[in-house]
User: What shape does this take?
Amino acid sequence: MSLEDKLSGWTGPSSSTEQDKQDRTERMIRQAIDAHEPFNDCSLRVFAKGSYANNTNVRADSDVDIAVECTECRYWGESEKGNHPPSGSYNGIWTPEKLRAELLSAMNTKFPGQVDSSGSTAIQINSNSARVDADVVPCFSYRYYMNHGSRDGTKIFKTDGSSIVNYPVQQKENGTAKNNRTGYAYKKGARLLKRVENAMAQDGAFRELPSFFMECLAYNCPDNAFSHPTWTERLRAMLLHIWHNLQGDEPTSGRWLEVSECVFLFHSNQKWTREDGREFAKAAWNYFGFK
Assistant: This one.
């Protein structure tokens, strides 16, 4: 098999069998939530997020992320003090602790003996022959107020006392827009980087990095990197762009963003660094013997 054939094959999504398992997993989690009586009096928005929802997942990273957003109340933040208009406080029963406890109860009822709640963020549902691994993420509605306008996301309260704000709607919209601009090549390119990372990690050629980081690296490549006629040339263009643009320390302007374009890709709380990105690009370049 030629390199071009291999790379082209690596751009494809999960197999239809794997997609069926992913869809079945999502349906079963929704059924568990619908059947849990305490949620009858709670306004919830249940939706898929991450690579499964954005169609950038690959076989080795085929788990399903399901957000369970409580919309009974909304948390908020502001870019400057005073941007948030005055509002009353929430006095209802749906605290982060109660939402997590009820979700855990619902999952244990539906998936007895297959639930792992040891993580600080998600409730994990372990896979079997008919399902893939799943992360069920309890969260709340969130709005961030800026000098001009606001943006909506979700706020996740971790069991260690910290919290995370995500913007899954913006991630999906931006990824779709870039995919359309590049003639449907961007998402294939994101899958390609993920499979390159998986292959190098499996062969011991480079350390393992998060799948989402690969997606963000692809997103920060210019649209014209995906316009080359072959996947060999497209991969070369992506790796060159990543390598050259992640040299040195984080700049004060023109910083790379996550796919949502609401969060900087590199900051002190991230699981990855600029060095990870450029070393990945160098390792992949050498892995394929590019000159």
Observations:
- Residues 139 and 251 are 32 Å apart (CA to CA).
